[in-house]
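Lab notebook: predicted structure, single chain.

Context: the supervisor wants predicted structures on file for every construct in the current expression panel, including those that have not yet been purified. This is the next one on the list. No modifications to the sequence; it matches the entry in the shared construct table.
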Amino acid sequence: MFFAKLHPLLVHFPVGLLVSGVLFELYGNFQGEKSVAKAGAFNVRFGFWSSLPVVVVGFLGVMSIEVKGEFKPFLSSHILFAFSTVFLFLGVMLLSRFRNRTWGKVAYHFFLVAGLCAVLGAGYYGGELVHRFDLPGGSIN
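Prediction complete. Output recorded below exactly as produced.
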């Protein structure tokens, strides 16, 4: 139960870094402001690396709670979006080497936007788990 209570406390840091990083980087790239794009790229990288321990803590948290039928679809969607977030931002990290090529720039920006959607989806379902179903302290039977 310790990890289930710790995960909602830790997750906000990488989420904030990833969301602000994507927005800064997209704005900086499309408006030609290199310093803003560079700050965004830093936030995306830092957010990706800081999300890895949070995913591990979340996985350990899921192992410590009893999964009830009522919130199981929300938990499944949260896990799907969380792992999608990690894999999409891993793609961002790998594609950053090819940003100088046209196809690399397009793929990089696609992965940034898809990663932003994934992190927002994970946040929505995580928020539902905490606020609608009162997890991890759960009063739902």
